[in-house]
Structures are given as structure tokens and as C-alpha cells.
From TrEMBL:
One Pfam match: Acyl-CoA_dh_M
InterPro entries reported in the protein's UniProt record: Acyl-CoA_Oxase/DH_mid-dom, Acyl-CoA_Oxase/DH_mid-dom_sf, AcylCo_DH-like_C, AcylCoA_DH/ox_N, AcylCoA_DH/ox_N_sf, AcylCoA_DH/oxidase_NM_dom_sf
Keyword field: Flavoprotein
Bilayer-spanning residue ranges: none
Domain of life: Bacteria
Residues annotated as domain Acyl-CoA oxidase/dehydrogenase middle: 123-212
Region (Disordered): 413-434
Name this polypeptide is given: Acyl-CoA dehydrogenase family protein
PANTHER family found in the cross-reference section: ACYL-COA DEHYDROGENASE (PTHR43884), ISOVALERYL-COA DEHYDROGENASE, MITOCHONDRIAL-RELATED (PTHR43884:SF12)
Domain Acyl-CoA dehydrogenase/oxidase N-terminal, first and last residues per copy: 23-117
């Protein structure tokens, strides 16, 4: 069998399947960024093409992608438009949670919804003076057998495009912390596109207001059953965003250099595209993009290990200690990847401007969006905290939080924001603290 006749991997087949859509998305990314036009049509096209169901098993109608395959696709999508990749983060986290849920009719119903094209957004974060451990959004019985949700969430990434909203809340009847899967298109839900960040402008990361929003009891999911590698998963999507952004910078700056007609008297070649110094700059950006994709792939392998461990735990093939080790490995890989990739991607995108001249700063070219996008994604869950914890583990063997949380610490001045950066892991944000093992210790400031 010749190399050209070898069967393509599922990753290659999936990439070929979605690449035409990715190319269409890339063609309009700069204009959407300039005008802050939300990509409703582009995300709808991805859903219609089955992108939201790539992780669903083939037997259930999906593509059966592994986590390394999913994150390979997300990196490609992020190279086309990092805002769209991030906007789908809450969806893929909810899909992951349903994949490791106990088998039964409810799990089957969710998988069918994903295959039908339903998307899930995210509404976790609350801002203000909320203390660690508090959640202001409540789920209450409506007196007729159903439930209603009331509260306000911020940084609701992806919800404005979604059919369902993954909402972190507290039940008033039992006090339990739950994930309420709230139908998005109903009078009791108001979605606003009021995210004012200078990058990732079109993620739909706005405010969600619930006012007696209806939710079925069957769609109230005990938070303590949430998939254990969620924090690592959420961070891995941001890593894909960073890796894709570096790849997009390589593509766009290389194209600009290739088309450049003028050069400088002190240049090393008659044509800019032949100048060895400028070619070196693009080569270094390309290498950073390669390293970024490799980092994402390595983290995704660790996540796949945690996913497979969850299935084996359900089957009684591993014990709790072995499963905890798999989840710890995923969390460590995610943190190490963040510490390595965040400064690398930012430096690469900044360095890319060295290959061009002052015209590269033209707002018409919108090349600055790559830096703005990388800087914004890199500010989520500050990596400096993760670096300290990785070092503490290496030197002292100390365990670290399995639930990340944010909120006003005891004794802080009233009026300080309890918000975390948009895009923090769904299990919490970036404040280090004692190991938190139960939903009762979790916090309302859990952005996505």
C-alpha cells in the first residue's frame, strides 16, 4: 500500500468535513471583529453540519470523536475565528458532562438533542460583593410541578447563540447546588450582548437575566455529579483559542509579507518576501503556532485519559483513587499547558508585526485583532497562579484546588467586584485556595 492510498484518520476525515465551513468563517472574521457583528449564521451553520455533536458516539448519531480529535478541530476553528471557538466552549463542556452521566433516558434525550443541532450556552458568573460559597441565582418550585429560575449572570459566553443555557444555581426547596438546563428561547430569559472587552469581541459574552424562567425538574442536574475534569476541559478550550490565534497570525502576516511591494534601503533583499530577516520572523511565528497545537494535543490526551477513567469507574473497573489520579493528571497538564502557551502565543503574535512595516497597524487590515484576541484569552484565569501551584506541587508535593472559585474574600472592602475574568474554567476561576471538593463549597463567580 502506497502512502497516498493509506486510509485517512478520523481526524483527517473530520477536518476535511468541516474545513469548507472553517474557510467561510475565516473569510469574514476580520469584518465581524471590526463591526462587532455576532456570528449567528456561522454558528448556526456549524450546528446544522453536526459540529456540536462530534463527541457524541457514532451509535447515537454523532461522529464519535475523541477529545484529541475534538481539540484538533477546535484549534482549526480558532484559527478561522477564535471567538466562535470560545463561544462553543460551554456547549462542548455540557456535552462532555452528559457523555459521562449515568446511562438512561435523560442522557439519551440529551445526546439526541445534540445530534439534532441543539446548542448549549453558559451562565455561571455573578458579579458584585458575593462571598466565596454564595450563589444568588435561585431555582424555585412554581407550585404546579415545575420550577422557575431567577437571577442575573454575567460573562454568559455562547448563550446568545444557544437553545439551552447551562446555569449554575441553588434550589430554594432543598438548598442543593444544581446545573439548570434552561430553555433559552422563552419570555423569562433576557440575553444581552454587552461584553465590552477589546478582544474576543464576538463571543456573545454578555449578561443573562432570568425572571421566572421555566425549567423542568428533569433538567436540574446535581452539581456534585458534574464531570470531574471540567476545570481542565474549560482551560483546554482557551488553549485551543490561543493556539488557533497564533496559527491565524502566521497565515495573515505571511500573506501580507508575500504581497508587500516595497522594502527598505537597509533591508537584506530587493523584495520583502525574500528578506531573510523577515522570513525568520514568520518562521518563528510558525514554530510558535506548531508548539501551541502540540500543547493542546498533549493536554487533550490527558483529558481523554480522565474521560476513559470516568467510564471505567462507572463500570467498576477502577477505584476512586485511580480515577482521582487520572483527573489530577488532566488538571496538571492543563495548567502546565496554560503556563507554557499563554506567554508563547502572545509573544508570537507581537513578534509577527516585526515582519511588516507601519502599514501593518492599519485598522483596515485589522491585524491587531490577533494580539487583542490572544491578550484577552490569555487574561482568563491568570496563568501566574497556575505556575505557582505547579511549582508547589513539584517542590513540595502539595495538592491543589480541584474546584476553582472566585468571590469577595472575608474582610474585603464592600463594593469590590466578585467577578472573575470571562472564560474562567466552569468549575471556578483562578483564585488559589484550599481544596474544594463539594458543590456546597463552590462559588457563584464561575464564569465561562
Amino acid at each position: 500500500m502506497t502512502a497516498t492510498s493509506l486510509p485517512r484518520s478520523r481526524q483527517a476525515r473530520l477536518s476535511a468535513r468541516f474545513r469548507p465551513l472553517f474557510e467561510e468563517i475565516a473569510a469574514g472574521a476580520a469584518e465581524r471583529d471590526r463591526t462587532q457583528a455576532l456570528p449567528h449564521a456561522q454558528i448556526a451553520a456549524l450546528a446544522a453540519a453536526g459540529f456540536g455533536a462530534v463527541r457524541v458516539p457514532e451509535a447515537d448519531g454523532g461522529a464519535g470523536a475523541t477529545l484529541p480529535e475534538l481539540f484538533g478541530l477546535l484549534t482549526e476553528l480558532a484559527a478561522a475565528d477564535p471567538s466562535i471557538a470560545q463561544a462553543l466552549r460551554g456547549h462542548f463542556a455540557f456535552v462532555e458532562d452528559r457523555l459521562v452521566a449515568a446511562p438512561g433516558p435523560e442522557r439519551d434525550a440529551w445526546l439526541a438533542r445534540f445530534v439534532a443541532g441543539d446548542l448549549v450556552g453558559n451562565a455561571w458568573t455573578e458579579v458584585g460583593d458575593g462571598a466565596l460559597g454564595e450563589v444568588g441565582t435561585k431555582v424555585s418550585p412554581d407550585g404546579s410541578g415545575g420550577f422557575v429560575v431567577n437571577g442575573t449572570k454575567y460573562y454568559s459566553t455562547g448563550s446568545i447563540f444557544a437553545d439551552w443555557i447551562d446555569t449554575y444555581a441553588e434550589r430554594t426547596d432543598t438548598g442543593a447546588r444544581v446545573i439548570a438546563a434552561v430553555p433559552a428561547r422563552q419570555p423569562g430569559v433576557r440575553l444581552e450582548d454587552d461584553w465590552d472587552g477589546f478582544g474576543q469581541r464576538t463571543t456573545g459574552t454578555g449578561t443573562t437575566v432570568f425572571h421566572d424562567a421555566a425549567v423542568d425538574e428533569a433538567h436540574l442536574i446535581d452539581f456534585d455529579t458534574r464531570f470531574k475534569y471540567q476545570a481542565a476541559f474549560y482551560q483546554a478550550v482557551l488553549l485551543a483559542v490561543l493556539a488557533g490565534t497564533a496559527r491565524a497570525a502566521e497565515r495573515d502576516f505571511a500573506a501580507e509579507l508575500a504581497a508587500r511591494k516595497r522594502t527598505f534601503s537597509q533591508g537584506a533583499a530587493a523584495l520583502a518576501r525574500e528578506d531573510p530577516q523577515l522570513l525568520q520572523v514568520i518562521g518563528e511565528v510558525s514554530a510558535a503556532a506548531f508548539a501551541g497545537a502540540a500543547t493542546v494535543a498533549r493536554v487533550a490526551e490527558a483529558l481523554q485519559g480522565a474521560y476513559e477513567s470516568a467510564l471505567r469507574l462507572h463500570a467498576g473497573e477502577v477505584d476512586e483513587e485511580e480515577d482521582a489520579a487520572a483527573n489530577d493528571a488532566a488538571e496538571l497538564a492543563s495548567a502546565q499547558g496554560q503556563v507554557a502557551l499563554t506567554p508563547l502565543a502572545l509573544a508570537a503574535v507581537t513578534h509577527a508585526f516585526d515582519a511588516l512595516a507601519a502599514s501593518a497597524t492599519s485598522t483596515g487590515k485589522d491585524l491587531d485583532r490577533h494580539w487583542r484576541n490572544a491578550r484577552t484569552a490569555g487574561n482568563h484565569n491568570p496563568w501566574v497562579f497556575k505556575a505557582r501551584l505547579v511549582g508547589d506541587l513539584a517542590v513540595n508535593g502539595r495538592t491543589w484546588p480541584t474546584i476553582w472559585a472566585v468571590g469577595s474574600a472575608p474582610g474585603t472592602v464592600a463594593g469590590e467586584s466578585g467577578a472573575s475574568e470571562p472564560g474562567a474554567p466552569v468549575a471556578g476561576a483562578s483564585e488559589a485556595g484550599p481544596r474544594l471538593d463539594t458543590a456546597a463549597q463552590a462559588v457563584a463567580g464561575l464564569p465561562a
